[in-house]
Amino acid sequence: AGLIAGADGIMVEVHPNPKKALSDGLQTLDFPRFQEMMEEFHNLCQYLNKAEEQRSSRTMRGAAS
After folding, report:
1. What confidence score (pLDDT) does residue 10 get?
2. What angle do CA 13, 15, 18 make, to 5 degrees?
């Protein structure tokens, strides 16, 4: 949701064994899940960038008319 809203960054807690984390274990990701999330973010960023480029090119074409 943050990326779609235009956030410049995110904060994520990562621990090799979240169940043994000293704090916030229930919201902490392990390394494999963090990697999956980052891949999903990367794909989402590519999609959003492409959509923005398409929107911008349509706007430019409309302005040139």
Report:
1. 86
2. 95
